[in-house]
Design brief:
The chain is of the alpha/beta class. It folds into 2 domains: 152 residues, Rossmann fold (3-Layer(aba) Sandwich); 54 residues, no CATH class. The chain contains 4 helices and 10 strands. β4, α3 and β5 form a beta-alpha-beta unit. The termini are far apart.
């Protein structure tokens, strides 16, 4: 055996990996299988500072793709220098996935995306794209650059009062009810709404988080919460 070949070979492999640079955590795509969601595209925006959406949303996306047929794309907050996931850093590559989305699942907190990223969400909302907002989505945005300042959770303008949370989800963030991370919350279904399509298969829920103080807009109430 040529003993000189071994170290030269390994040096070549190391040089190859070094040339590629650090691994990057780009959009995660689960191609759908057969099922009721086949041909539909769900885009998940994972970018909060508290509840590990970067872990939970990929798990949900995988289930929806494998068992229900949806194509699912998960976007993350990415450090542009290292390519690593850094929750809450207001940089989310791949937002153009919303251009072909049939549903957006938003789990963001106090984001200020660059204009070139935010314009894709703005276009999605302007075409009437449906949105599912989770937990901190009521205060998904803060200090957004113009012309997207209107999405801020405390926006004062009458043209889009109280921003994304109020206008899209029906409630912006006001504050915590009680002590967060030390209380839990029981969620019960409104009895006469138990047959609503959104609640199909849902039973009473208990979660290990506190509640939010709120003054929601008028609408159909499906559940009640008791911290």
């Amino acid at each position: 055996m040529n003993t000189r070949f071994v170290p030269v070979f390994f040096l070549f492999v190391l040089a190859l990996f070094a040339a590629r640079g650090p691994a990057t955590a780009g959009p995660l795509v689960f191609e759908g299988t057969d099922g009721p969601g086949k041909g539909k595209h769900i885009v998940f925006l994972a970018g909060d500072h508290e509840y590990r959406s970067e872990e939970t949303l990929p798990a949900l996306a995988r289930l929806l793709a494998k068992h229900h047929g949806f194509k699912c794309t998960v976007l993350f907050n990415i450090d542009p220098e290292t390519g690593e996931i850094v929750a809450g850093n207001s940089n989310m590559p791949g937002m153009e996935a919303l251009d072909s989305a049939d549903l957006a699942v938003v789990f963001l907190r106090f984001q200020a995306f660059p204009k070139e990223q935010m314009r894709h969400l703005d276009a999605y909302l302007n075409r009437g794209g449906p949105v599912v907002g989770l937990r901190t989505a009521t205060h998904a945005f803060k200090a957004n650059p113009a012309p997207f300042t209107k999405y801020d959770f405390d926006y004062k303008g009458k043209d889009y009062e109280l921003g994304f949370g109020h206008q899209v989800l029906g409630q912006t963030w006001v504050g915590h009810y009680g002590t967060n991370h030390k209380q839990s919350t029981r969620i019960t279904l409104v009895p006469e709404k138990a047959g609503h399509p959104i609640l199909r298969g849902v039973k009473d829920v208990w979660v290990e988080v506190g509640g939010y103080v709120g003054d929601p807009v008028s609408g159909e109430v499906l559940t009640m919460a008791q911290p």
